[in-house]
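Obj.: predict assembly geometry.
Materials: sequence records (below).
Method: joint structure prediction, all chains together.
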Amino acid sequence: MTEKRTIVIPGTVLGEAEKRKPGTGTFRENNNIYASRLGIKVEKGDYINIIPLSGVYNPSVGDNVIGIITECQLSSWMADINAPYPAMLHVNQVPWKVEFGSTGQYLNVGDSIIAKIGLINESKKIELSMEDRGSRKIDTGIILDIQPQKVPRVIGKNGSMIALLKKYSNCWIFVGQNGRIWIKGESDRIDFIAEAIRKIEKEAHTVGLTSRMETFLKERQK
Amino acid sequence: MSISTIKKDYLVKLSKEGRRVDDRKFDEYRPIKIKKGIIGMAEGSAQVELGNTVVLAGIKMLLGEPYPDSPDKGVLVTAAELIPLASPTFESGPPRENAIELARVVDRGIREAKVIQLDKLCIEPNEKVWVVFMDLHILDYDGNLFDACSLAALSALNTTIIPNERFELGKNEPLPLDESPISCTFVKYGDAIVIDPSLDEEEVADARLTISLDKEGSVRAIQKGLKGTFTVKEIETITKIAQEQVKKIRKFLGDKDGKNKKEKKG
Amino acid sequence: MNKNEIQLIKKGKRIDGRRPDEIRPIDIQVGILNRADGSCYLEWGGNKVIVAVYGPRELLPKHLQDSTCAKVNATYNMAAFSVEDRKRPGPDRRSREISKVTSEALSGVVFTEQFPRATIDVYIEVLNAQAGTRCAGITAAAVALADAGIPLRDIPVSCAVGKVDDTLVIDLTKEEDNYGQADMPIAIAPRTEEILLLQMDGHLTMEEFNTGLELVIDACKKVSEIQKKALLNKYGSSLG
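Observations (raw structure tokens):
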């Protein structure tokens, strides 16, 4: 069963506003719905959506992201989360008891963390939280940067793709919604997985990728 | 654009296993691609791709006054533009110290080896000489601008035609050149010293060394950069590797030139 | 060479053999730069232009931020070796003016309200100049914006119309630009024919102006097809 995938460019007519609803990557003008992004047209019920093929990470509350600390302040840190906006992590959002002025004892400039996006206000000020179980400071391994729009492909439907990667690599893999992927394991296994992820990124818009990746991983494992 | 500390840890760890992050050997260059004569408005031009680093060199020649201390020689002016197009880390504005250092190092490599026969570029001593402007335009930055720019500059000079006709000084002819020096750049991180650093390797580098060797393998120019240090033994190892690698690059360029002898300016 | 010695149109054909309404050949490559979020390399006649888009990204210094929308910051720059007489590196007044009108033109189609306080940086580098570089720059910038995933109402396109030897011509060459009677570059959003950029200098009767406008909008639409093809080609063949 093959899906038919149509690539559209911004300004392409997608449907009539009376009959359909504008989803992500689209806009309504007069009686029509148009694409605003370069991407794949996908129809879900009444909605027409565009899955973008490129673009920066647009933070959403609840996203799990990998951040890199850029500043230590007296009772907070600033982090780069690969978004158009810097994010703040306050001392009362971390699992440690941090005294005023001693933020540097826990996280330093250049440290990487897994955190959740807790809050985004109207002027796009972002606050992170490390309260939940998944959050931590990253101690070793590598962080791979991929285009944020390709993250869903690396995870796969119901996590199918990432399960494949973990199965064939014996590595610890965490995919941040912001296009950063943490891989921890033996160095040649890390190389192998990094190569596989780059392949997924390059072919993200194609059909049948999951089965092709399984073949690729099986062969390269030898 | 932030650099994580675990990146350096990982690169150092890999280096202890004798490996680099892109699987190259410590003394291995990335693939080099050169396109010559692609800018019609320039008197000479070349685009070099060194891995994913892309540099475009353009040569313009104009008439001007000689320097007072060399009244019968042509003038060479080298400039480099780290335009923001090439990297999210390059900022708009006049050249900062990195761009200036880059231009001056590339310039020295060419000037000290007397690549351009500047004494043949004099039209009237003290009054009129040819000024050779070499402008290096970085288009995509993935490490090792020194070697990419040096190769681009030399390749561009090799295609340069003096525009005599435009200035009514006779017929156009090729710029008189001697054998070119080749530069090799190394960086050190942890205890590892690697040639032709990629962007990742430059980001974690403690120290950097660029060395230019001429046809005989003699040293023509050196530049050490960044805040880290080299031991004398490390420098000796570097010069040995440079001599081998320069031979390889010369052969590569020579083979290319043989194939391209019939190519004309675009 | 003075104006009286050149005949710019002979028997309905221009110096380079084109008909008055013909544009020079255009070739577009999408996504050719590694570091940029979106990029485009465009050849138009002898023009060679490369554009990189970065963003939306944080706009610094903070006091320049607009709390309601992103700023579109286009910078037009000519490489020192791109013209006959070497150009001193750095922005001159002409480049700064072109940067301004280009930023304004592109702002007209970007959904800037989706990214308050951010900036969308568009770097236009002219590597080889043969007249019409600002039109080539905007046309390439539009493709680079789409490649970068910037949300757009439409893909802008630009072309120029002028007058030589009392004839309206599209897409002027260097000689036509230097010795002609009028030059009018325009940028439009092709879907709605909204005008994003319009500049003119020279002499045109009202009738010539109106006809010229029609002709250049038509030419823009032809260029628009080339942009669209290039964008679709980037992904087209490997869809599976």
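Conclusions so far: Confidence is low (pLDDT under 50) at residues 261-266 of chain B.
To do: check interface contacts against the pulldown list.
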